[in-house]
Amino acid sequence: MIYKFMAEQESEFRIERMCRVLGVGRSGYYDWRSRPTSQRAQANEALLVKIQTEFQISRETYGSPRIHAALQRQEVKCGRKRVARLMRLHRIIARKRQRRRPMTTQREAGAVPAPNLLNREFSALVPNQKWVTDITYIETAEGWLYLASILDLFLRKIVGWAMADHEEAWNMALLQRQPQAGLLHHSDQGRQYTRATYQSRLAISECQVSMSRAGNCYDNAAMESFLGTLKTECATQPFATRAQARPAIFEYIEAWYNRQRLHSSLGYLSPLEFEQKSGP
Questions:
Q1: Considering the domain boundaries, does residue 170 fall inside one?
Q2: Which parts of the chain sit beneath pLDDT 50?
Q3: 234: domain CATH number?
Q4: 161: β partners
């Protein structure tokens, strides 16, 4: 390992100085340099290139389990521990998810919150059975950009979203998915969701209405997870303008999250692939 480090630093430091600082002999170093690279080392170097490529494709967000899954999809033969070791050795570290601090919600005056029918059962048997929704704010130099999203718990797919009125997110989900009566719609108790106009829209679609308990973000943990991922993988820094943020969020949700990002809960498939495999 010392000799490999020295070889990587030759353009920066003299060999004689590195040998003195690291306590090794020059003859040993040059003897190491003259040896042919082992097949194992060559294989590791080739695998490392593939790992680095997948890491960049993932926007530097994949850890070793997802990197390994991505390589397996390409029929690259390697073990998860080997991938983890190479990533650790070369300091390929995924971005850490920042803990999201949900903003305090206030229900519409006089509104009676719905019971928590979801009851933290964040799984579904079929698409369009359970949808969870929430609102977050994307920071820009011009001020906050409002984002409403709706997540299907079976597909782990964002089926509706809007950077305007939260009812537009509902409209998108209805248009794209056309759920049958009985869909469970879960949200917090914010005034956007307890407002009579929004509740009437849910009633027209014959939804079961479910709401988190006041101040309990864990009751909507699946949605909190998505929003945390969004902040880690897309909105990592404040955008300069709202106009700059909008296409970035569109591309993240539609091109990356729904179509390409590997989800461990889906057996390392993207939501689109999982939906295609699940059939009609």
A1: yes
A2: none
A3: 3.30.420.10
A4: 149
Q: Are 209 and 112 within 8 A, CB to CB?
A: no
Residue 83 and residue 134 in one domain? no
Angle between helices 166-177 and 196-204 (to 10 degrees): 10
Instruction: Write the DSSP assignment of 228-248 as a string of letters.
Output: HHHHHHT-SS-BS-HHHHHHH
Asked, for residue 204, whether it belongs to a domain, the answer is: yes
* The two three-digit tokens of residue 147, written as one number: 């984002």
Closest C-alpha among 234, 239, 258 to residue 98? 234
The whole-number pLDDT of residue 261 equals 95
Range of the domain at 59: 2-89
At residue 96, the pLDDT reads 75
Residue-wise pLDDT for 219-230, tens only, equals 999 999 999 999
pTM given for the model: 0.79
pLDDT for res 50:
92
Q: Residue 230 and residue 129: Cα distance in Å, rounded?
A: 24
User: For 181-254, where are the alpha helices, taking DSSP H only?
Assistant: 191-194, 196-204, 221-233, 242-250
DSSP label of 10:
T
Give the total number of structural domains in the chain: 2
